[in-house]
Structure formats: structure tokens, C-alpha cells
Specification:
The structure holds 2 protein chains of 2 kinds.
Chain A: H1 18-35, H2 42-45, E1 50-53, E2 59-64, E3 70-77, H3 91-98, H4 110-117, E4 121-126, E5 131-138, H5 142-154, H6 160-180, H7 184-194, H8 198-201, H9 208-212, H10 216-226, E6 232-238, H11 242-253, E7 277-283, E8 290-297, H12 304-316, H13 322-330, E9 334-344, E10 347-356, H14 359-378, H15 383-402, H16 405-419, H17 428-434, H18 437-447, E11 454-460
Parallel strand pairs in A: 2-6, 7-11
Antiparallel strand pairs in A: 1-2, 3-5, 3-6, 4-5, 8-10, 8-11, 9-10
Chain B: H1 2-34, E1 50-54, E2 60-65, E3 71-78, H2 92-99, H3 109-118, E4 122-127, E5 132-139, H4 143-155, H5 161-178, H6 182-195, H7 215-225, E6 231-237, H8 241-251, E7 276-280, E8 286-294, H9 302-314, H10 319-327, E9 331-341, E10 344-353, H11 358-374, H12 379-392, H13 400-412, H14 423-428, H15 432-443, E11 448-453, H16 455-458, E12 467-471, E13 477-482, E14 485-488
Helix pairs in contact in B: 2-7, 9-12, 9-15, 10-11, 11-15
Classes of the chains: A alpha+beta, B alpha+beta.
Chain lengths: 461, 491
């Protein structure tokens, strides 16, 4: 059964483990779009968002951009894996898939057909604390998108048969994924180590058992609690008239009743003491040695987030970045490297994944990694390197603001859900100018404590 | 009593009327929710102005002027790709392109990476059969520095030996990885097979032959084909043609033209292929690729072909996917595609299935093709396909790099600059007769069929085919499978 239809390019990705591709592609696109956008300045693009709130609490943000006759709509709900009840891991992700299974006036999977029939593209993604649904369509079809999104916000139609089928798909796809991508489970394992708390640390897709545990009642309660206008933001960006768009939004969304206020999960207290772990796992499914590294960071200031992003550019973005250059180009101990900073509410984490030829190379990589992190704490980053990091960041930032409607809408929706107020315009690039080598040194010294490093070495049998 | 009944009736009626009055907004709300809204009129696609000029060294400069853009995209389009690699050196065009950025006479490979990243340049290299595109995107403030840097790649590449070894290794592993997918392996084999004997090299790479490519070969290829008089520079951003030409002629003035020894490519006719080939591939899944020749985009059949392709297998809402996967559960997926080469086009179907369902998938594909040729297409299906094609075009050109490429492809396929502006109009002119006409022209003859998968697991399920040619993973002929019997032959 088709779960979701992808764009022309993405259709190539469709195969029997569709749910997984859906999740991975959606999540990757989303993370890529979000990583450079935390606020906007009007000066580079002159995009001026207009925002208003409906009586039922739905926040609406509208941005006009007439470059192409297109409009992107993002509806984001403040719900993610953090809201999964105990022993029901995977519910938020399952819910995302169920949102395509029809509503009172739209048949199962018809949402996809409606969008595709007009040449549009759509997708969805679930993260730790947010769920995004998004479409890009010809601008004359704005009404269609709003009708479809309001339908599933208000009238989702799920029954036992549909639920069992979706659960089956999810379990089968996850099983297949573990075979196709044997390293995938270590990405979840490192989270469990990093966040020793069910809500923060469990896997987004859940286990076969936890998915089986999910009942129709769980799904309906979850839907009624979190898929409500007062827990959502709707962002429209594209070739539209703000006033007309506002009228359409009111027509389709204002009569949807407000829901209960969603449950706010408290900040967890993680056990004190070093969380540093160095585990070796032997896995018959993997074909080459690999290493996962992570460190959890807390008690930082909001303005530090941008410094972490610049640190990430210096460390591992681009072929001339410190880790890529040393591990792959110069010393040739690693075959592949990926990673970056990730945010989970009040926590940041730096995560890295690398592949190497043998265990010795893994050990060498580990030493180089520690060495490079120490270097950040002991040496000032050169002016040239700072310029490079800032230029890369700035390019990506401007590209995502001006590049296309979808990335802009996703970023605005994400920022709104994070701060629960309208994204502040114009501070990010100015803040970038204030960051210097000293900012990097101080932040690295404060947060990159070696005793908190976590390593998982994965070796083939 | 009667009066009381009347009074009660009146009261009841009043109550009903009041209730209706109160509830009427709800009913009206339900009504508008019942069906999708009518769309607004379609907005036209207004592309930014495109201008061009040819410089003294033969380099064509093409500008796409977007005054409000902060981002520039620079594309260098070379009218040569893998089909220009000598038959014994497949991969030469790809390696030459990749090596341009791995050392020049004045810059080491590391200095190049350092400079590209310091300028925040996002870059990509795409090598196709007939063309190569180098794409660089950056902020407006870095335009001059980016042009200076990029010009060196084309004017004074050094092709250092150590970098060539490394580039070969990277490409080798990429090809190995690429061919692990039975569909990709099957498509490469399909293009090789369908063009065999035509004199045209579709540019299929062979990882085993990369080792034969030398620095001298790269230098020769660069000298022969990566010339200004074989190239177009597209500058997309806040710039006029005169300003762009001035900057480009200054930075690229040392790039010397050379006479090009281009061989003519002939148009290949749609024909009958009485050929089913099985490509042995260590995969638990089966990839089926089948197709035939069609015309290039400059032909009048192009737009009806686009519509036909969409109806048959353009998306998951098309006949192939719905028929093979959704209705019958025979395939994991099934789509159709159009690929274009110099003077030629291919219309092909790709499906992934299991060994057990392979024969049935082939049968169903043939039935769907016959159905398209013989039965009238439902007008609503036609209109849906046209709506998709018209609506989807702007989605394909949202970023500066995507737009530059779409404009650049007009050069490759000898299409007019207003091709995309007239796209809507040309799609709208397509009717069922035109679609059925192209279906009869291109889908009637028996197409070439490639089946790729594990031979041992699949052969038993292919007994109903008259004859199948068996090839090993390297594409070498091994045997004939005829009526359930495997016959080894020497060819």
C-alpha cells in the first residue's frame, strides 16, 4: 500500500520499505532546511512575514514571494517522539503516517492524489518534538491545500483495520531497514546513552513490541490531544495575496474547535557524574568497522547556539574542515564521516559517525577526534578559518531564506513552535558578525568536557 | 382542541425554523467542506529575462537576470560528455571533469578546496552522455573571486598523478556501489544494448577499465572538448549581459578555442526488438527495464509523449503503479521514463518485483501498453496528466541552479529560448488523438526487454518466454534459455 507520494525526483526512492524512505527523506530534508535558519533578516531578502492567530489558537504566518507561481504550506504540530507514552514508542511517528489515511471528506491516501494531480509535491516528517506536513503546489491551488490540511486536522478517520495495517507496515519497514542499514540502530542507541530518560532518549520509530502495544484508543487520544489548532502553526509562503490567503485560512480553520492544552513534558534530570562510555559492539550485520561519538551539552545560553553552528562548520562541514581534512584527506584513517550539532529542547549534542577499514583505524580516528576537540579548547581559531566558517554559514543561511518557499516556511514554523512566538526578524547575521575566535574557545572550554564523551565502536563479526 | 393542535403545530414549526436558523451556518460549513474548492485561474510562468552573447574566443555567455537575488549561480556547460570518451576508455569524460578542480598550474588541490570553501561556494559536476555541467552557487559579494577561481580550472588544469589515482579510486567505488542496485545495472545494460551497432556511444561507465585512463588522456580530452567554442557560461543573478560579458571575457580570455572534431549523430528509429535479456545480478529483487526509441525534444511529438508518459507511469497515480502495485500487488513499483540524448530519445519502463512475479509483471506491462495503443484515453485522465505537467514545471526551477540548468539544456537540445515560456501552451494543445497517435508510433513495436536479478532464483519462473539471452554481471553473453532449457553457446 502506498504511504506517501513523493516528488518526481523522490519517486525514484519509492520501494517496498516506503515508510522508512518517507521518514528518512522527509527528516533529512527537514533537518537540512532547518539547520541554517533560526531567524531572518529582512535586508537580504525583504521577505516580511505577516502573522495572526485564529480564535481557536492556530498561529498563522504568511510570506509573499512572487518569484514563481507556487505556494508552499507547512502545518507543524508541537508533537513528536517526546510525547510517546511509555511502552508505546513510535506512536508519534505512526500518527504521522495515519494522517494520510483519510478523513470525513477525503478518502484514504486521496490527500496524496489531490496534490499530485495538480503537479504538487508533499511530504511529512516527525522529529523529537515536532511533526511537519508540507506541500508545494501551483499558487492557484492554495484553497485545495488548506481544505486538505483542515480536513485531517478536524476530521481524521481512523479505524481498527487501518491502524493494524499501518502498524504492520511500520514494523515490516523497520525490520527491513535494520537489514538494509545495519548502522541505523546505533543512531538510536547513542541517543539512549546520551539521554537516559524515556521521553528524551527512545527511538522515534519504536520497537516491534511497542508498536504492537498501540491501540486505537491510544491513537485517537493522541490525535485529540496534540493535533489541535492551539498546538499548531500554519505557514504559507509563495505567490499569494496575504488578505485573500487570510480569508481562506479563516474559512477552513477557524471553525475547528480548540483542543486541550498539550502536555508539557518537564526538563529531565539526568543522573550526575560522567556519562562517558566507551562500548564495543560486535554486529554480524555490519560489513565494516564504524564509530559513533556523541556528547550532550546543557546549561548554555540561547546566543551560544549560533556559536555551536560555527564550531560545526570548523569541525566537519566541507572537505577542508578540520576533521574531514585530517581523518579522510590527510591521515586517511576514515572512509566516511558525518555529523553535527543537534538540538533537543534545552540540550544540544554533538554527534559523529565514521566508517573505517579496521579496528586500528577506528582507534586512530578516536585519538584524532579527541585531539581536534582539545585543539578547539586550547588554540584560537585563525582569522582565515573563522572567515571561511562564517562565509559557508552565511551562504547557506541566505540560500535557505531566498532559495525556495518550502525551506522558508519550514524554518518559520519550526522557530514558532520552538519559542511559541513570532520568529524575530533580522538578528542572525548581525550576531554572526559578533562571533570571534574567542567565542569558540570559551564555549569549547565550557562544554566539550572529555569525561562526557560517549563512544560506540561497531565491529563486524 | 383543534386550536390547541394548530398552536402546537405553529410552535413546533417555529422551533424547527429557529433551530434551522441557528444550525444553518454549521450546515453551510459542512457543505463547503464536502468537496475540494475550485482552483483560482492558473498564474502564468514569467521567467526572468535571458540574454546571450558570444565572446571572441567563441565562448557563449548567457545571463539570467534576477535583480532581487542575493545568490549567484554560475554554470559552465560543455557540449561533450561520456559519449565523447573513446570506447576503450569509458569514464574519461567524467574523470577529466572531476580532475579540473583537483589541481591547476598555480593552485594545489588543497588550495582549491580551501578557496572554494572560503568563498562559501556550493558546487557540483554532472557528466551525462552528451554534455557536462559545472555548477557553482555563491553570494553576490563573491562574484569576482568565484569567476577568477573557476576560470583557472578550465584554463590551466594540471591533472596531478596522485589526484588522478585518488579520483579513479573514488569513481571505482561509486560505480561498484551504483551497480549494486539491479535497476541501475539493468538500465546501464539497456542503454548499451539499445544503442549497440548504431555508432553512438551512450557513455556507460565500466569500473574495470578506469585503470587504463592516464594523465595524458585527460589532457587530450580537455584540449579536444573543454574548449570555449564548445561551451556556454550561464550567469544567473543580479547582473546584466554587458556586465557579465565584461567580467567573463576578462577572466576567461586565456581560454583558447580549438577546432572541434565532432562526429554527426544519426536519428535512430523506433523498431521491433525480439530480444529479452537476462542480466545475472546478485540481488533478491528483480529489476525489469523495457523500452524503445522515441524522438528528441525538438520534435513535434515531444509534448504528446510527455503526456503519454505521465498517463502510463509518470507518478504513483499512473497506470503502471496503480495496475502493477496497487491493484495486483505484483511489483514493488513501476514507472515510465523519458531520457534524451543528442538526436534521440528513449521511452522506457522500470519495475521492481520478485522472481516469482517477473513473468506476470512483463505480461501486465505488455497489456498496459496494448491498452494505451488500442483504447481511447479517458478525457479526465488526459486532463489530469496535463494539469500535473503544467503545475509541476515551476517546482523544477525554484532554485537558481535548477533554473540555470533548464535554460542550459535548451542549448544542448537546440531548443528555442522561449521553450519553457511556451510549455504551458504546448501542453494545452495536446489532445487524446495526439497522445494515441504517439502511442501507436512508439509503443506498438516490441521493445527491448532487460530483466536483472539472481539467475538461479529466477530462471525457473521464466519458462513461458520463448527465448531469453543470458548475460553475466559484466554484461557478457553466456547462454540462451529456450523453453525451459539452458543452452550454452559460443559467440
Amino acid at each position: 500500500m502506498v504511504n506517501l507520494i513523493f516528488s518526481k525526483k523522490m519517486k525514484r526512492l519509492i520501494n517496498k520499505n516506503k515508510n522508512l524512505k518517507f521518514y528518512l527523506v522527509g527528516s533529512c530534508l527537514l533537518l537540512f532546511c532547518l539547520r541554517f535558519l533560526f531567524s531572518f533578516q529582512s535586508e537580504p531578502s525583504d521577505y516580511k512575514p505577516v502573522s495572526f492567530k485564529l480564535k481557536n489558537g492556530l498561529q498563522v504566518i504568511i510570506v509573499e514571494d512572487n518569484s514563481f507561481p507556487l505556494v508552499s504550506a507547512v502545518i507543524a504540530y508541537g508533537v513528536g517522539s517526546i510525547n510517546d507514552p511509555p511502552n508505546k514508542d513510535g506512536l508519534a511517528y505512526l500518527m504521522q503516517n495515519l494522517m494520510f489515511q483519510g478523513s470525513e471528506n477525503v478518502g484514504p491516501l486521496q490527500h496524496i492524489n489531490y496534490i499530485q494531480n495538480v503537479g504538487g509535491e508533499l511530504n511529512a516528517a516527525t522529529t523529537f518534538d515536532k511533526t511537519f506536513f508540507y506541500e508545494t503546489v501551483p499558487s492557484n491551488q492554495l484553497g485545495l491545500v488548506l481544505w486538505l490540511e483542515s480536513e485531517r486536522m478536524h476530521f481524521l478517520d481512523i479505524n481498527q483495520i487501518i491502524l493494524e495495517k499501518e502498524k504492520e507496515n511500520l514494523i515490516r519497514n523497520e525490520r527491513q531497514r535494520q537489514l538494509d542499514e545495519p548502522f541505523a540502530r546505533y543512531f538510536f542507541l547513542i541517543d539512549e546513552i546520551l539521554y537516559p530518560d524515556f521521553s528524551y532518549g527512545h527511538s522515534l520509530v519504536g520497537s516491534a513490541q511497542s508498536v504492537k502495544n498501540i491501540t486505537l484508543n491510544d491513537v485517537l487520544s493522541f490525535y485529540r490531544r496534540y493535533y489541535v489548532p492551539n498546538n499548531a502553526v500554519l505557514c504559507l509562503s509563495g505567490d499569494l495575496n496575504t488578505q485573500k490567503a487570510k480569508e481562506l485560512v479563516i474559512r477552513y480553520f477557524e471553525s475547528i474547535p480548540k483542543g486541550l492544552e498539550p502536555i508539557v513534558y518537564p526538563k529531565p534530570e539526568f543522573p550526575l557524574g560522567p556519562s562517558g562510555r566507551d562500548q564495543i559492539m560486535i554486529d554480524p550485520l555490519v560489513s565494516s568497522p564504524a564509530m559513533q561519538f556523541a556528547i550532550r551539552i546543557e546549561n548554555y545560553q540561547p546566543e551560544d547556539i549560533l556559536i555551536f553552528k560555527i564550531m560545526e562548520q570548523i569541525l566537519l562541514n566541507g572537505n577542508s574542515s578540520r576533521l574531514v581534512n585530517r581523518l579522510i584527506r590527510k591521515e586517511r584513517v576514515a572512509l566516511y564521516l558525518s555529523g553535527g550539532f543537534e538540538e533537543r529542547r534545552e540540550f544540544q549534542s554533538l554527534k559523529l559517525f565514521l566508517l573505517a577499514n579496521n579496528q586500528y583505524m577506528i582507534e586512530r580516528s578516536k585519538k584524532i577526534l579527541i585531539d581536534e576537540l582539545n585543539r578547539l579548547k586550547t588554540e584560537m581559531v585563525s582569522e582565515k578559518e573563522m572567515t571561511k566558517a562564517k562565509n559557508k554559514f552565511k551562504y547557506n543561511y541566505v540560500k535557505e531564506i531566498t532559495g525556495n518557499n518550502l525551506s522558508r516556511a519550514l524554518a518559520l514554523a519550526d522557530r514558532y513552535l520552538k519559542e511559541r512566538n513570532l520568529p524575530e526578524i533580522g538578528s542572525e547575521l548581525a550576531q554572526l558578525e559578533r562571533i570571534n575566535s574567542y567565542s569558540i574557545l570559551m564555549l569549547a572550554r565550557k562544554h566539550l568536557n572529555e569525561e562526557n564523551y560517549c563512544f560506540i565502536t561497531i565491529l563486524p563479526r | 382542541m383543534k386550536a390547541m393542535i394548530n398552536r402546537l403545530r405553529r410552535q413546533a414549526l417555529t422551533t424547527v425554523l429557529i433551530l434551522l436558523l441557528i444550525l444553518s451556518p454549521l450546515f453551510s460549513q459542512e457543505k463547503f467542506r464536502r468537496n475540494p474548492p475550485y482552483p483560482e485561474p492558473v498564474s502564468g510562468l514569467n521567467l526572468p529575462p535571458v540574454d546571450s552573447e558570444i565572446l571572441n574566443n567563441g565562448l557563449k555567455v548567457l545571463t539570467i537576470t534576477r535583480p532581487n537575488s542575493q545568490i549567484f549561480n554560475l554554470q559552465i556547460l560543455i557540449q561533450a560528455g561520456e559519449s565523447y570518451s573513446p570506447p576503450h576508455l569509458p569514464g574519461l569524460a567524467t574523470l577529466t571533469a572531476r580532475m579540473l578542480q583537483r589541481g591547476t598550474l598555480t593552485l594545489s588541490p588543497f588550495e582549491i578546496i580551501e578557496r572554494l570553501e572560503t568563498l562559501g561556494i556550493e558546487y557540483s559536476i554532472e557528466v551525462q552522455a552528451d554534455y557536462t555541467i559545472f555548477s557553482y552557487s555563491f553570494l553576490e559579494e563573491h562574484l569576482d573571486s568565484a569567476l577568477s577561481l573557476v576560470s583557472l580550472f578550465f584554463i590551466e588544469p594540471a591533472f596531478p598523478a596522485i589526484e588522478l589515482t585518488s579520483a579513479k579510486r573514488e569513481l571505482y567505488y561509486q560505480l561498484l556501489n551504483h551497480n549494486q542496485d539491479p535497476e541501475k545495472a539493468a538500465y546501464a545494460f539497456f542503454t548499451k544494448k539499445i544503442f549497440s551497432g548504431s555508432g553512438y556511444n551512450p557513455g556507460v561507465l565500466d569500473e574495470e577499465l578506469l585503470k587504463n585512463i592516464s594523465q595524458k588522456d585527460l589532457a587530450f580530452f580537455h584540449q579536444s572538448w573543454l574548449r570555449p567554442n564548445n561551451s556556454t557560461i550561464i550567469l544567473n543573478g543580479n547582473i546584466s549581459l554587458s556586465n557579465a560579458s565584461q567580467k567573463i571575457s576578462q577572466k576567461f580570455r586565456r581560454w583558447a578555442p580549438r577546432a572541434l572534431d565532432r562526429k554527426p549523430v544519426s536519428r535512430l528509429e523506433n523498431r521491433t526488438f525480439n530480444q529479452i535479456c537476462f542480466l545475472d545480478h546478485p540481488s533478491s529483487e528483480i529489476a525489469v527495464i523495457t523500452g524503445n526509441f522515441v524522438v528528441p525534444p525538438s520534435d513535434e511529438d515531444y509534448f504528446p509523449l510527455l503526456v503519454l508518459n505521465h498517463i502510463l507511469g509518470g507518478t504513483t497515480n499512473s497506470r503502471l503503479f496503480l495496475g502493477l502495485r496497487e491493484s495486483k500487488g505484483l511489483a514493488y513499483y513501476a514507472f515510465s521514463e523519458l531520457s534524451f540524448f543528442k538526436e534521440n530519445g528513449l521511452f522506457w519502463i522500470r519495475a521492481k518485483t520478485s522472481p516469482e512475479a517477473t513473468s506476470q509483471v512483463v505480461k501486465e506491462i505488455n497489456e498496459l501498453l496494448t491498452n494505451l495503443v488500442e483504447n481511447r484515453i479517458n478525457p479526465s485522465e488526459l486532463e489530469r496528466a496535463k494539469a500535473y505537467l503544467i503545475g509541476n514545471l515551476p517546482l523544477q526551477i525554484q532554485t537558481p541552479a535548477e533554473l540555470s540548468k533548464k535554460i542550459g539544456l535548451l542549448e544542448i537540445f537546440n531548443l528555442p529560448l522561449d521553450f519553457w515560456s511556451k510549455y504551458y501552451q504546448n501542453i494545452m494543445l495536446v489532445n487524446t488523438e495526439r497522445v494515441q497517435g504517439v502511442a501507436r508510433s512508439y509503443l506498438t513495436k516490441k521493445p527491448l526487454m532487460i530483466i536483472a536479478g539472481d539467475l538461479n532464483r529466477t530462471l525457473n519462473h521464466l519458462r513461458e518466454f520463448d527465448q531469453i539471452e543470458i548475460y553475466n554481471r559484466k554484461g557478457q553473453f553466456q547462454a540462451i534459455f529456450q523453453k525451459g532449457v539452458l543452452k550454452y553457446e559460443n559467440r
